[in-house]
C-alpha cells in the first residue's frame, strides 16, 4: 500500500523536503494550554519543592520555559531518582501523572532520595496533542548531545551531571489509537516508506532495556499497576507492538541505541511506561493513577535494591 492511501502530505516513496514539512506544520492546531495545565500546577508546588528552569524553546512567536522539579532537601549521597513525562506531547497521562505524583506522593521520599521530575519535556507538542516537535522530529529518537530536537538537547544537558549517579529513571508514555491512525502513517510518509498497519494493545505495558534488563524491577511495577488498570495481553504472535513478550506486560527495546529518553543516564533501573487511554476499560483518571502507581513502584523497588 502506498503512503498516499494513509497520509495526505508528500509523494509515496519520497521523503519529505522543506515544502512538505512546512505543509505539515501549517496543519497543526493548538488545542490546550501548557501555561494553564503545567506551569500553573508547577507554580503551586514551589512551597514544597525547588523548581528550576533548565531551558526555553522558541518556535516563532511562542516561547516555552522548560521546568524541572527537585527535592527541596537534595543531598549528596542520597539515591537520585528521575521521572520524565510528556516526551510525546499527545501522551497526556505522562504529563498529568507526573504532576499528580508530585502533588500527592513526592514528599513521602523527603530525606530518603533526591527526586528530579520533568513533567512536560515537549510543551509545543503537548498543546497540539502531537508526537513530533515543529520540525517534524520525534524527541524520543533524538536524546543525544547537541540533538537537532531542542526538547531532547535541553533534557540531555539537564541530566548530564546525573548521568553516572542516577539510580532510577522512569519515562511516562502512552500508546494510543492515534498511533495507527495518524502518527505511524505520518512517519512512513515523512521518511518515504510504506506504511504497514500494526495492532494497538489494550492495556498497560512496560519497555525494558535490551542491554540492561531488570526483570524483577519490571515485574514489581507491573504488579503495582495491575491494581489500578489492566495489563496489555500479547497479540496472536506473542508480541506487543512487534516485540516479543518477556513476561506479562513487558517488552524490551535497545534504549541507548535508539536514543530514547530512558537511556540518557546510566541508571541501574530504567523503564518506559505505556498506558492505553483509548480503552473502554480505563478512564483518564485511571491512566493518571496508573502512571503514579508505576512511579511509586519504581522508586520503592530502587530504594529497596540500590545495588541490584
From TrEMBL:
Gene3D superfamilies: Zn peptidases (3.40.630.10). PROSITE patterns: PEPTIDASE_M14. Its cofactor is Zn(2+). GO terms for biological process: proteolysis. The active site is at residue 274. GO terms for molecular function: hydrolase activity, acting on ester bonds; metallocarboxypeptidase activity; zinc ion binding. InterPro entries: AstE_AspA_cat, Peptidase_M14. Residues 30-306 form the Peptidase M14 domain. Keywords: Carboxypeptidase, Hydrolase, Metal-binding, Protease, Zinc. Belongs to the peptidase M14 family. This is M14 family metallocarboxypeptidase.
